[in-house]
From TrEMBL:
Ranges for region Disordered: 1-21
Topological category with respect to the lipid bilayer: Multi-pass membrane protein
One GO molecular-function entry: polyamine transmembrane transporter activity
Protein name per its UniProtKB record: ATPase cation transporting 13A2
Organism, scientific name: Gasterosteus aculeatus aculeatus (three-spined stickleback)
UniProt domain P-type ATPase A: residue ranges: 263-379
Annotated Cation-transporting P-type ATPase N-terminal domain residues: 164-219
Family recorded in the similarity comment: Belongs to the cation transport ATPase (P-type) (TC 3.A.3) family. Type V subfamily.
Domain P5B-type ATPase N-terminal per the UniProt entry, residue ranges: 27-144
């Protein structure tokens, strides 16, 4: 969700701290509170910071809100120096209000600002000065608007521009007006800050993890654990250095991708063309685009000429797009609805054609307000990941903190009874906290994700959001685009069928065999194909269509006057003509106007003229349903629906064509000048021409991947802009719909002046007879999942608006979503997420960008290595990357669990060892801590995550909850086994005939070496290795342990080393580790045997927990409903045998309501 709103629509803040100001956007909101500095409070905070030795400043750094409340008082926004912003995710940000002096009277030049409401007027030394008040948040500039009583995004100044306004800017801005606008909007830069190392070091060190690490090191130094403290300090410095290097490297990479400065030519209001830096551009500037194109540094509306644009960096779509001039008129302008007339920042303009003049565009957005700026901002400031594993991690650390607190109380009692000094009591107690809560735990659990990211990169899958790798392991539903994703990108022309009032003619398999006429001309010219260095370039469908006619494409050379005069003086964009011009093959036609394809409109059109400018015709091509609706009813054949259903059911891509004559004397001139509402006038009252059928083959990998997902109980759905029958055919071909499964179509209609909204479910094929109608639903529901719903975009919109209670049920059973507009795809993903699905989305084009970013896991099939269209980008051209991504996600999630449990058990093992030894008035030696922490645990944790994913997807997904009964239960049981093992070693030692009690008059390291310490340390060293084996899960989501040969070799080496230390430590190792030299070999073998028994018991406990032995405890509380809404709803639907009611027309007051509580 985008956290930036367009404007603030609320009242200004009140003086009390309670009320908040809402800054509302289209789909999100922020809360803004104003504060003013209070001098005496500031000085009190400075004094408190000095007295606390800077601890107060650290607290303020962690909680900026406390800093604001302590130093400031609440005030209206109009008077605020400091703003406290709460975004839509509940995160708080502190922003400083900035001011900038402006020339007196200059604001009056901007008529859009309405009475100078963007500035304050202050009186300094009896001189009035105009101040612009603003703040910067996530790169965006928010300016104070007095009339609105709030801070608004600077883009609010131009959000109401109309097409007419944009065309009026062709004359250019004056230097003064341009200067004023620059102060309002700021420089045209997508500035990704790269912080200096000193600042990064300061911020990194103040991270709670490193603060705790610094506290631990200080404590160890005070306790004279010099060697261990120095080693940890060196490791921490090394870790910080690597972290800072990586952060800075990523920042530099992102800045190089985002920041771009070039020279552009703009037009001034004086008519002079001036070359300026792109930093100087402001909304309203008129930019002259050179014929050779350029890399665009802003968003701009194209007003004259045509541009061929590569938008792969933003959308992942590798096919260049032809941009056409924005029509004139009074209608509002929006870059989203006018994408075919908008040039986006960061896209590469390959070619610009002005028809004898330069292409002209007007800047509409700059900096972070551009499409590229918005995407870069989403990378810099990602929305918080709502994933249970990450939430439970923090809760589990609190649980360990509670364990440390209880252990500290016990240690204080034991130490007090041992008559230690107060200083040592404090040191020993605090030392126990650093043991129970491992400071390296947050860093350790990311190693699995790092290894998974590296493996994915080797497979050609690039990730810009590593935390989402773990989320891949919990995906429960994957949505796929159709064309270019499930099916081949290219299409083959299957045939043409002309139609009219008399009906359809015979099928013509090769369009080049058509007789000369409107149908052949329409196929040859109704497209946006262009030439680049003599080679046709454009949409693959249109390329195949033009190629099938046998006609050639010619574009004007130089200023194009020759072609213009040949075709009646009209400005010619392109000429299409047969290879040999004769009456049998047809005559050349010139394209004088293009209305490009729009996903929302589902159509495109062109206007053509013949030689001499005569016979002007408008041709339209688009979805059959849309085209038929724009044609005169008498020209549409009666067999239209049956033929369309027949072709679509065969999996063919069906397009319809239509045409109409254009009055060249009255209409053509205004059409060429892009006047509105000329497109609407051109695209109505048309004559239906016929169908064009194209065969879109399913990719050979698609069926196999869908089958893999199906066997793994992962639901798949198709979301496409194609015809619903074509989509159903593809769904059957690739296995989304089984051979024996039924398809039920959902048809919802919005209300009209004469009728209520309706909802109807109909079975595929002929409608059931009256006797069958009551039987079919019951049979369907007896088997649970042997039917699928299919719905189109219009029905989906009506369902959302008028049948919201039915929407969750339809979403639960729907597999095919057809004729979906780009915004509907995004809405669908969000609605599925409301049902608690973890949604994945795989697509390859610009129409999928919104859905890719909204999904929990978005996969873009693109050749770009770092497309910002989605978190994941795959270079493979098929969906085989999806199972791989899910397997890696599951492997990473299981590895993160293993590492979390291992690090927790490591701290609990050491925690228990210290408490046991405290009880007998001794402790672990410095080098014993170092050996366990550094040479055993750290090395094992680093290589534990290297195991790769399993070769197949298991039907059961891994858990994401650290607080689940199996996790907490196994930790509790293993901790019990650890304690019993260490106590057994201690009691076995004290029961020996040769046992000599330690000196009871001293405590701690003064008692080293001793028998108790050596026996407990020896067994605990084995336990670190044992737990590494026990918690490292293999089947079913990871490869078996022996595939991770580095980890296996390290286990063998550490086990051999530990066994050597127990059996034959030698004088050097024994002296350095302060080990007691036991002479009884049978006793030492007994210690090894206890360790082996400890391993067998822990391994058996882990196996039993995995088998679900702890589930018997759940029976005591009774069976609970799933927390996931889609699972609860599925149970209710399975118990409702009469839903969906087939062939019954339902109204909003009649449908069956199924509630999920």
């Amino acid at each position: 969700m985008d956290v930036r709103g367009n404007a603030a629509e609320s009242q200004s803040a009140r003086a009390s701290p309670g009320p908040r100001d809402h800054v509302l956007g289209p789909d999100s909101h922020m809360y803004v509170q104003g504060y003013k500095w209070v001098r005496w409070r500031v000085w009190c905070c400075r004094l408190a910071a000095a007295l606390s030795l800077g601890l107060l400043l650290i607290v303020f750094h962690w909680q900026p809100r406390l800093a604001v409340l302590a130093r400031c008082r609440s005030c209206p926004l109009a008077l605020a120096d400091i703003l406290l912003i709460t975004d839509s995710f509940g995160r708080r940000h502190v922003m400083k209000v900035l001011t900038e002096e402006m020339e007196h009277g200059s604001v009056d030049l901007l008529g859009e600002l309405e009475d100078n409401d963007c500035r304050d007027t202050v009186q300094l030394h009896k001189e009035e000065k105009t101040l612009l008040r603003y703040y910067l948040f996530e790169g965006l500039r928010y300016i104070w608007l007095a009339r609105k009583g709030s801070f608004c995004r600077a883009s609010v100044l131009n959000e109401n521009w109309t097409r007419k306004d944009l065309h009026s800017f062709q004359k250019g801005l004056s230097p003064l007006e341009q200067s004023l606008r620059k102060r309002m909007y700021g420089p045209n830069l997508i500035d990704v800050p790269v912080k200096p190392y000193v600042q990064m070091l300061f911020e990194e060190v103040l991270n709670p993890f490193y603060v705790f690490q610094a506290f631990s090191i200080t404590l160890w130094l005070v306790d004279k654990y010099y060697f261990y403290a120095i080693c940890i300090f060196i490791i921490s410095i090394f870790s910080i250095g690597i972290s800072l290097h990586e952060i800075r490297k990523q920042s530099i990479t992102l800045r190089n991708m985002a920041q771009f400065v070039t020279n552009v030519t703009i037009r001034r209001n004086s008519g002079v063309e001036e070359c300026v830096s792109s930093e100087e551009l402001v909304p309203g500037d008129c930019v002259i685009i050179p014929p050779e194109g350029l890399l665009l540094p802003c968003d701009a509306a194209l007003l004259a000429g045509e541009c061929l644009v590569n938008e792969s960096m933003l959308t992942g779509e590798s096919v260049p797009v032809l941009k056409t001039p924005l029509p004139t008129g009074d209608g509002g302008y929006s870059s989203e609805t006018e994408r075919r007339h908008t040039l986006f920042c960061g896209t590469h303009l390959i070619l610009a054609k002005g028809g004898g003049a330069s292409a002209v565009a007007v800047v509409t957005s700059t900096g972070f307000f551009t499409a590229k700026g918005s995407l870069v901002s989403s990378i810099m400031h990602p929305q918080p990941t709502d994933f249970r594993f990450y939430k439970d991690s923090a809760k589990f650390l609190l649980l360990l903190g509670f364990v440390a607190f209880m252990g500290t109380i016990y240690s204080i009692v034991v130490l007090f009874k041992s008559n230690v000094t107060w200083w040592e009591l404090v040191i020993r107690s605090l030392d126990l906290v650093t043991i129970a809560v491992p400071p390296a735990l947050p860093a350790a659990i990311t190693t699995g994700t790092i290894h998974a990211q590296r493996r994915l990169k080797k497979q050609g899958i690039f990730c810009v959001s590593p935390p989402r790798i773990n989320i891949c392991g919990k995906i429960s539903l994957f949505c796929f685009d159709k064309t270019g994703t499930l099916t081949e990108e290219g299409l083959d022309v299957w045939g043409v069928m002309e139609g009219g009032a008399a009906g359809f003619s015979e099928l013509v398999p090769d369009p080049s065999l058509l007789a000369p006429g409107p149908m052949l001309s329409g196929l040859a010219c109704c497209h946006t194909v262009t030439l680049l260095q003599g080679q046709p370039l454009g949409d693959p469908l249109e390329l195949k269509m033009v190629e099938s006619t046998g006609w050639t494409l010619q574009e004007p050379e130089g200023n194009g006057d020759a072609l213009d005069s040949e075709f009646g003086g009209h400005r010619v964009l392109a000429v299409v003509k047969p290879l040999s011009q004769s009456t049998s093959t047809g005559q050349a036609v010139a394209i004088v106007r293009r209305f490009p394809f729009s996903s929302a409109l589902q159509r495109m059109s062109v206007v053509t003229v013949a030689h001499g400018g005569h016979s002007a015709l408008a041709f339209l091509k688009g979805s059959p349903e849309m085209v038929a609706g724009l044609c005169r009813a008498e020209t549409v054949p009666q067999q239209f629906s049956s033929k369309l259903r027949s072709f679509s059911s065969e999996g063919l891509r069906v397009l319809a064509l239509a045409c109409k004559p254009v009055d060249e004397r009255t209409d053509l001139g205004t059409i060429e000048r892009c006047c509105l509402p000329r497109r609407e006038e051109v695209e109505k009252e048309l004559q239906f021409l016929g169908f064009l059928m194209l065969k879109n083959l399913v990719k050979p990998e698609s069926a196999g991947v869908i089958n893999v997902l199906r066997l793994a109980n992962l639901r798949s759905a198709m979301v496409t802009g194609d015809n619903i029958l074509t989509a159903v055919n593809v769904a059957k071909t690739c296995g989304m719909v089984g051979v024996d499964e039924k398809v039920i179509f959902v048809n919802a209609t919005p209300p009209t002046a004469q009728s209520m909204p309706t909802l109807e479910f109909s079975l595929e094929g002929d409608r059931a007879t009256a006797g069958q109608t009551a039987i079919v639903p019951q049979r369907l529901y007896q088997n649970g999942f042997d039917y699928h719903l299919a719905i189109n975009g219009k029905s989906f919109a009506a369902l959302c608006n008028h049948f919201p209670e039915c929407l969750p049920k339809v979403l639960l059973r729907a597999t095919v979503f057809a004729r979906m507009a780009p915004d509907q795809k995004t809405q669908l993903v969000k609605e599925l997420q409301k049902l608690n699905y973890r949604v994945g989305m795989c697509g390859d084009g610009a129409n999928d960008c919104g859905a890719l970013r909204a999904a929990d896991v978005g996969v873009s099939l693109s050749e770009a290595e770092a497309s910002v269209a989605s978190p994941f980008t795959s270079k493979t051209e098929d969906i085989s990357c999806v199972p791989l991504l899910i397997r890696e996600g599951r492997c990473s999630l299981v590895t993160s669990f293993s590492l979390f449990r291992y690090m927790s058990l490591y701290s609990l093992i050491q925690f228990c060892s210290v408490l046991v030894l405290y009880t007998v008035r001794t402790t672990l030696a410095d080098l014993q801590f170092l050996f366990c922490d550094l040479f055993v645990v750290t090395l094992l944790a680093i290589v534990m995550g290297r195991g790769g994913p399993s070769g197949e997807l298991h039907p059961h997904r891994p858990s994401a909850s650290l607080l689940a009964l199996p996790v907490l239960g196994s930790l509790l049981l293993h901790t019990g086994m650890v304690v019993l093992g260490q106590l057994a070693a201690l009691f076995i030692t004290t029961s020996q005939d040769w046992y000599v009690p330690l000196n009871s008059t001293v405590f701690g390291v003064a008692n080293l070496p001793n028998m108790e310490n050596t026996s407990v340390f020896s067994l605990s060293a084995f336990q670190y290795i044992i737990m590494a084996v026990v918690v490292t899960k293999g089947y079913p989501h990871k490869k078996p342990l022996f595939y991770n040969w580095i980890f296996l070799c390290l286990l063998i080496v550490l086990f051999a080393l530990t066994t050597w230390l127990v059996l034959y430590p030698g004088p050097f190792a024994g002296h350095q580790l302060q080990l007691h030299n036991f002479l009884d070999m049978d006793f030492k073998m007994l210690l090894v045997a206890v360790a082996a028994l400890n391993f067998l018991v822990c391994f058996l406990v882990e196996v039993l927990v995995d088998k679900g032995i702890l589930n018997c405890l759940r029976s005591l509380r009774g069976r609970r409903q799933s927390k996931k809404q889609y699972k609860r709803l599925n149970v209710l639907l399975c118990e409702s045998p009469l839903w969906p009611p087939l062939n019954e027309t339902m109204s909003p007051t009649e449908h069956t309501v199924i509630h999920c509580s």
